[in-house]
Amino acid sequence: xxxxxxxxxxxxxxxxxxxxxxxxxxxxxxxxxxxxxxxxTDHVDLIYRPDxxxxxxxxxxxxxxQQDGLVVVDAGGxxxxxxxxxxxxxxxxxxxxxFLIYTHYHGDHNLGAGAFLKxxxxxxxxxxxxxxxxxxGAPMDYIKTYDKAYEGYADVIKDRxxxxxxxxxxxxxxxxxxxxxxxxxxxxxxxxxxxxxxxxSDRISLYDPVAPVEVMFLGxxxxxxxxxxxxxxxxxxxxxxxxxxxxxxxxxxxxxxxIGVLKKLEGFDLAYLIPGHGEVQTDRQYLDKLIGTLAxxxxxxxxxxxxxxxxxxxxxxxxxxxxxxxYAGDNGWNRLWMRNVFLNAIIGNAYKEAKGEPxxxxxxxx
Length: 366
Description:
seven-stranded mixed beta sheet, alpha/beta, Metallo-beta-lactamase, Chain A, 12 helices
């Protein structure tokens, strides 16, 4: 997930933890900057945020215990987040991390990599070629001013809390954010991206007799460089933000191709699907749900766009009420997220797709 200044003012997502200077200040779980560890299956553990829709939203981290070292999928979304993850990894194993794999370029999955490089200087960072290109280019420019973008966010919180019709399920989240905001703002000082040292365009294999890892590019989906990680012996699939639970994320995604990639994921003999954020899946029901949702949006948007209707008018015509209810229910905060990090973006992307217009990475399409 990755937010622009425009979408920051509409919804909260992709906000990362605080800087090292405030590490002691956020040590307690009540501040929202903590991780938990879950054992998934033999040789596989998960380091995750237990509340996937609480700010800051940082990606799931998968730890694979190979014979001579560890393979880690994603690195957290801030220097301090990366430090926390490193601490948790060291509790799991004394082995070094040999490989760090990025699923995609969104900062909440890789801005913690500096802590890995400090702990294991010889770690090899791996990504698709497109992800490296994005991380070394304009799509990551936002990190230069991310702290400034959030300094004025107190006004948004104040406005939402002042509105009498703000649902209680949303209100408590704004109060929570108001308390955490000073620490969050400090998280964005001097952010540095660490692009991969090793890249691939199709697939790369990290052989191991007990836990071999296959890293693949199956097509454009949530970004133009999504990597999928497959552990055939453990039957574990890590999808990055191709799958996000419970609220999917769209940004500059590719709706039609995304469906194709999701169908490929369904073809794996998986026992566990680790999404980019949120609950581990043990069947294909959520994949089916995502495929159906994307197909529904495309079916509504494509004929309207091809008739020459403007995007503004298409947005008015598309019926997203059932989709909103299906994912967010009556929870005001979840509905806010669903509208702003998925529905608005996916309608815009489906419109561009139908018109043959480019979908540019790093730009908000909501």
